[in-house]
Design a protein that fits this description.
With 188 residues, this protein is α/β, with parallel strands linked by helices. It has helices spanning 2-54, 83-94, 113-127, 161-172, and strands spanning 64-70, 73-80, 101-108, 143-148, 151-158, 179-182, 185-186. Strand 2, helix 2 (83-94) and strand 3 (101-108) form a beta-alpha-beta unit. The longest helix has 53 residues, at 2-54. The radius of gyration is 27 Å and the shape is globular.
Length: 188
């Protein structure tokens, strides 16, 4: 009797992983599907937020809008030349399906005729260069020129390290610019 119980116990131990295997294997695909659908949803939300920001009517090469998505919360950041652009960006993102809250860390740059003159001179210097002229034909060029109190920051994306350096060089050659910070990211 004892040998039979022992044999039955050993057989039960050996069969347990086989019996449990289909249940655990069945659970894994559901978890993977859930993760994949969540990743697709997040990617779709990223694209929708970007689309809404780029389509804003006052968004220009002299503004920089960035964002982060944390679950159903969107955090906006950057610099804009017009206060209306800040409120339009908040409203556009808030209206998206799946967004429950928007945190706006967008800075409105102070109005300054001198900064406006610098913006236009920088635009001519950067986009007037034959090596960088191709960036100007986009609806919203990928190299953004941010001017605050004479200090310049280049934001956005360049196709190559050469283009990034050339844009920084051209910005440094503009008279009355106090400093140039080149934050361009090379696409790749």
């Amino acid at each position: 009797m004892r040998m039979e119980l022992r044999a039955l116990f050993v057989a039960g131990l050996l069969a347990a992983p086989i019996v449990a295997l289909p249940y655990s294997a069945a659970a894994r695909p559901q978890d993977e599907k859930k993760q994949r659908s969540e990743a697709k949803y997040r990617e779709k939300l990223y694209k929708e937020v970007r689309h809404q920001l780029v389509m804003l009517p006052w968004y220009s090469v002299f503004d920089n809008l960035a964002y982060q998505v944390e679950g159903d919360k969107v955090i906006l950041s950057g610099q804009v030349t017009r206060p209306v652009l800040k409120s339009d960006a908040e409203a556009a993102v808030k209206s998206l399906e799946g967004v429950s809250s928007v945190v706006s860390n967008i800075e409105v740059l102070p109005p300054s005729p001198i900064d406006d003159q610098l913006r236009h001179a920088l635009y001519r210097a950067i986009y007037g260069d034959p090596g960088l002229a191709r960036y100007s034909i986009q609806a919203v060029p990928s190299i953004h020129i941010i001017v605050k109190n004479g200090s310049v920051t280049l934001e956005g994306v360049a196709d190559s390290e050469t283009d990034k350096n050339l844009a920084g060089l051209r910005a440094n050659q503009v008279p009355n610019v106090f400093s140039v910070k080149n934050n361009l990211v090379v696409r790749g």
